[in-house]
Amino acid sequence: MSLSQRRIAFIAGSLLMLVSVCYSKVYCKEGHSGPTYESLQAVFNLQAFRPAVNLSNPTIANISFTLYAVLGVNEKTQILTTFLWLRLYWRHEFLVWDPDECDGLTKISLPVKELWSPDIIVYEFVDDDVSQACPYVYVNHTGHIRWDRMLRLVSACNLEIFSFPFDVQNCTFTFGSYMHTIRDVRVSPALTFREMSQNSKRYLEASGEWELVDILGETSILKFGIDEWDIITFWVVIKRRPVLYVVNLLIPSSFLMLIDILSFYLPPHSVDRASFKMTLILGYTVFLLIMNDLLPSTANGTPIIGIYFSVCLALMVISLLETVIITNVLHHNSLKYREVPNWVRVVVLKHIANLICYRWPEDVQPPSTLQKDKTGSSNGSSGPWIIQPATQAPDQRPASNDTSALPELQQICQYLSELRAHLISLQKESQLLDQWCHVGYVLDFLLFRIYLLLISCYAMVIITMWCIWITQS
Length: 473
Hints:
Layout: H1 3-25, H2 37-44, E1 59-74, E2 79-91, E3 107-111, E4 120-122, E5 136-140, E6 144-156, E7 168-177, E8 185-189, H3 193-203, E9 210-224, E10 227-240, H4 243-262, H5 273-290, H6 304-335, H7 342-355, H8 370-378, H9 407-472
Parallel strand pairs: 1-8
Antiparallel strand pairs: 1-2, 2-6, 3-5, 4-7, 5-6, 7-10, 9-10
């Protein structure tokens, strides 16, 4: 046997002897209800060593926790802050005494800093531990130790915010030893995962933004190189309460969109509808700026509610463009006194009007009769909107050419001719204005129905997607 092997055997034998001595010295003096200070001091001196008589046997650490509160969810940094009541169990094989020799005492409290404790950590922990420390542990006469502590856990979590505010988050808490491998420390749940979930639902603060759905978990082995660690993985499923965001975001936005839809019923020829819609867009922009702090933001994606607001703003801009087009048709073309092109009569006033079931006023002829009127006017008639010249009475006889009219009568005839020409001009202008007005009304009805169809399809898609996510959650 080499010198190094002899030294290792000597050290191991010395440790085993020391452990055996310490194991036998945890006793109770007569008249004292508990282990003596000397026997406990001998155990405290072995605080740096794992409390196992046979080091080949791993120390089993049992873990359970209760989720007491969800303190915050930071979507931008992908961090979840929770408050846990953590409880650890393990067995200290050097702290064993006979209750019959200690006046029936079965449990004592000892300072945790004087005893060996498993280095159980949460692998997702990303901040300093600022939790209030619990300096004592309970020790049973069989050597089983219970350590209760409060843990403010700041952990990394992959937060999915696409379905905000109806999102469900699934965060992972992985408990395991930091240094000790599976040969030294094994971990296992102290309670069933169902019991942990029920306890957490019982104590979780109900006034917060989040509610607990379930706590799931499993034990597994983490391999890194040739070493293996025993770990427990908990999946904490929490769901956001969406009432605050529905009241403050969705309902006001829906009201503004409803006002934008109802603005199409304003008469475009007598009311400045464009100014009203521009004011509405300005109000919607201010609303988005005020509510921007309520929307989560990440570098990975945009929530669907943000897309919803952007599309609503785009629809308002489209409705404003539609109003600009209709205003141009009603005023710009009519002021130039231009005739309505024939293809516009056929396409807009005939086919599109029949498609959208446009109701013509009683005093206006439909476009199907316009061609007849136009043909009749070309044959000598003046059309439906042209003033016909006064016909001569049957008993009147034309004056003879050789009879000279009085100057007063000639002037009256000139005045009447000018008045007739002026009335014909005004009536023609009114006719052109009415024609362009009907073209504008037909286009307004058509674009309004297309706008309603777009909004209806978009609303159905959004509602269907949110209903699917709520059902799956």
